[in-house]
Structures are given as structure tokens and as C-alpha cells.
Amino acid sequence: xxxxxxxxxxxxxxxxxxxxxxxxxxxxxxxxxxxxxxxxxxxxxxxxxxxxxxxxxxxxxxxxxxxxxxxxxxxxxxxxxxxxxxxxxxxxxxxxxxxxxxxxxxxxxxxxxxxxxxxxxxxxxxxxxxxxxxxxxxxxxxxxxxxxxxxxxxxxxxxxxxxxxxxxxxxxxxxxxxxxxxxxxxxxxxxxxxxxxxxxxxxxxxxxxxxxxxxxxxxxxxxxxxxxxxxxxxxxxxxxxxxxxxxxxxxxxxxxxxxxxxxxxxxxxxxxxxxxxxxxxxxxxxxxxxxxxxxxxxxxxxxxxxxxxxxxxxxxxxxxxxxxxxxxxxxxxxxxxxxxxxxxxxxxxxxxxxxxxxxxxxxxxxxxxxxxxxxxxxxxxxxxxxxxxxxxxxxxxxxxxxxxxxxxxxxxxxxxxxxxxxxxxxxx
Length: 428
What we know:
Layout: H1 2-18, E1 41-42, H2 45-52, E2 58-62, E3 66-67, E4 80-81, E5 94-100, E6 109-117, E7 122-131, E8 139-147, E9 152-154, E10 170-178, E11 197-204, H3 205-214, E12 219-223, H4 230-265, H5 277-287, H6 316-333, H7 354-358, H8 364-380, H9 389-395, E13 401-402, E14 405-406, E15 408-411, H10 422-425
Parallel strand pairs: 1-3, 5-11
Antiparallel strand pairs: 2-6, 4-5, 5-6, 6-9, 7-8, 7-12, 8-10, 10-11, 12-15, 13-14
Helix pairs in contact: 1-8, 2-5, 4-5, 4-6
């Protein structure tokens, strides 16, 4: 009986690691029931088209209020590449839209910006973990790309402004569960791939750090080392953008198709250019069908199922790891010197096991029954635990070392930020 008890305990620990109970950020000063969510407002299609068409370089939205027609948060709109305006040849620049920069989290404002990015000016890339509370294994994972001067050009400078030009030197890419405003992410609910959409959000480094700092979430950064040096960094950026752009077009295309019939039945109010609102939305729908580069590499093209978030198989950290593995695999296939580097695992996205999906709304009884199967799955796939990713990257030779140990840098407002100590940045 004691042996059975030990086995069951180990299985339950493993299950707890990967199936963490529902949690929310603690807010002891917040009285129960005192939080209110603003009523959702669907964004104006004309504004979307002006921004998507490059006629405006920024788009200001209310973070907790504004939604796209499918109900998804407008502030969470994924990064997308303006392929017609981009040069995908070596040395060319890419035009990115939906970069969160310059918004005010405390005012509830998100500002989506457009920038021209020069991959050849990349200097380093970091895998960053952010604690989410609870077990140490439960962290958010994201990728930070740092550029030399001139590597990122924000478009659409305010012509009425004087003084120093606005610049940023880093971008943070974060795979997230795209959902309506006010809907808390729930790790158990996310086991069901129909619960959330998958989206790759892009922030300037200072914007993301500010938002994480407000939530009391410090950063731990691990510097990546990839085959080919800077070529490897540029390849990783390319992989991230092609995959993220493709996922965004999948998701947006789906809800546009679902909404088309309702639009046709709506009163076709004329737009400013004489078109109807229905025609405006259909123009946006057509723009989602643009084919991205490297579409022939199946590893970069997400299927409809794969463009849906899943808490273990397509989470923030596992998708970032998948991006890294695909980039490394492509570099090795091209014969780039690897210095003993390898992929963490075969770059593929697993199908969703039925038993895992069933746990999304399971009670403790079903969780206990599933514990042995979960333990076996964890042993075969340790990469599904976000806290394991830095060690796995290190084992694959993909992290920079200092003094014989992997380089880890911790950033917080209490210690130092990636841009210096707070006393160097703020007026005291």
C-alpha cells in the first residue's frame, strides 16, 4: 500500500506541475465585486482599413473596451507583416504592424504602431521568463530581439513634435491566448483548443517591461546562441514573423468568414469613399488571404487547429521554443556551422490528445484517474513545462555561458532594467 501511495503521490505532483489549478493574480486591496468591465465596443471598420492600408502609422484603442467583430480584444491584435511594403531579400527591411508602444496601461489605452525593421541589425536575442504565480514551473515565456541603432524605425512621426526623434531598440514577441477583454486566462480552460485563439503579440521592450512591472512580474533573461551568429538571429526573427503573421491571418480570416452573412444582412451604410460597410469588411477579408513567404515549409505554416491556443502544446513558452527549434533546424539544413548546437526536439507541433482536451472541464476525480497518463506524457515531453525550457535550451547548446555557467540576467524596477537603473531613467 505504501508503494501505491508513493506512486500516486508522484503522479499527482506531475499532474499539478502541468495542470495547475485555476489562478488569478492576488489583489488583496481589491474588494470583491468592485471591478467592472467596460461594455464592449466594436471598432470602426474605416479606422481598421486606414491603419491596415498604411495610411495611418498608429491605431489607438481602449484596452478593456474595444473589440473586433468576432469579440476578440482589439488591443491583443497580433503582429502582422505588410508584405507588399517589405523586402524579404537579404539586407531588406520588413514593415510590421500592431506593435504595442506608447500606450498608457493605467489609462487603459493601447497604442498599436507600425515600424520598419532591419533584421541585419540584430545584435542579440533573449528568451525571457516571467513568473505568473504559484509553482516555479508556471512562467510566461517570450522572445526579446535587440537591435543596433537604426534597426527599428517607427513610422509616422508626429509632424507637430519637436526635439529628439522617437526611437526604440528592441521588440518583445509573446505568443498569447487571444480572447475578449475582461476574460481571464485560465490554464485548465485552455486545454480545450476551442477556448482561445492563438496570437503573437509584439511590444517595444519598454512597453512590455512596464506592463509586466505593474503586475509585479520581474524578468529573467537567457541570451540565445544560434548557428551562424547574426545570421541565426535574423533567421529566428524571420521564422517568428512568418509563423505569427500566418497565425493572425488564419484567426482573423475565420471570424471574417463567420461574420460575412451577418454583414450582408446589415444595412449597407455608405462609407466615406462611397462603398458600404459590408464592402469595407470584405476588402479586409480579402487582404487576409495574402500568402506569406516560405509557405512551402510546413513547419512555418500553422493549420487551422494549430492556430488555436492550447495551454500545454501551444502555449507562450512552447511556441517560442518551437520558433527556436524551427530556426535552428533550417540553419543546420543549410550547412551553417553549428558548434555542436542542436534542436531541443524535432520541430513539430503535436496533435491535441483527446484525454488532455477532456481535462479542460474535468473534476478532481477525472484528474486523479488521468494522473498516470499525465506523468507519462510529461516524461516523454518535458518541454511542455515552461520552467524547463531554459535548461533544455542550455542542454542543446543554445544559451550563452559566462564563467562556465549559463548567463542569466534578472530585471526588475527594484534592481535594474534592461535600459539602466531606475535612478538613471526617472526624476527622483
